[in-house]
Please model this.
Amino acid sequence: MVRENEVRDAEVAIEAPAASDAGLVFIGRIHTPWTSRLVTPRQGRIDGPVCRIEVFEPWVPALRGLEAYARIEVLYWLHLSRRNLILQSPANDGDVRGTFSLRSPVRPNPIGTSIALLQGIEGGTVYVRGLDCIDDTPLLDLFRSVTPDNGAVMWTSSPKAQDPGRL
Amino acid sequence: MVRENEVRDAEVAIEAPAASDAGLVFIGRIHTPWTSRLVTPRQGRIDGPVCRIEVFEPWVPALRGLEAYARIEVLYWLHLSRRNLILQSPANDGDVRGTFSLRSPVRPNPIGTSIALLQGIEGGTVYVRGLDCIDDTPLLDLFRSVTPDNGAVMWTSSPKAQDPGRL
Model:
């Protein structure tokens, strides 16, 4: 159920320490068709729309060789997520579960991970399918996936396996 | 080949912008048998040693429910890695590849991801197999993996697939 940053019944928020143990740099931006959380899919699909990952300078030369891989892992910053819930109610029904047992975007360090299908690279732009993040999501990293390129289990063996890596 | 932070022949370092776009909080610490990079394995093994993930307060209650999953994803901060190489020479032989085509720990945002096998949880301590990071690595996140619990492809189908997620 989509959350608009409210704390729900039985959820537990904490006073978290300042997030200052390490700093991130946004190395690009992800462009998707989804401009609000109400329409953003809960998980990506390999037959979903092609999304565009824009890599900023000075990191563009670091893409060299990525074209050899069919499947790439994408890390991004869930910039709209609150960070201070330790117990969450995914169904908003009063039942709560620990944040670490969920792939909810609400996390102490809101880093998203997805396995995406590489469609092409042009200059500093990487085209992929299989993402599920909102338009303008900040990019943290890209790397070849360790999922075998036949991808059988990741994409087809069970409903759970069809989730390409949503947090 | 283990790097002790030197820049090798033909590698390219950049002047990266300050890493101040977002802040991380270290939510725990990972205890492994490996106290130097010279002995840390390049990839984890499910029959490797049990490692101990210590979760700090106030996040311990967020572990509730994690015990239901055999396979968990672990995100951690590669605190010893330099961040400014865009072309790297993994074999130290003058041949270079782009950072994003590698799972090297040297990255603009040095976040490590591993799939680990859950062995048990006691209070704020999570016991797992399959990690490959150095002792005292800072913890960023834990969550259930989307890898199916039979884990066939991730662990056994090919040499590439046996890498449990090393960056």
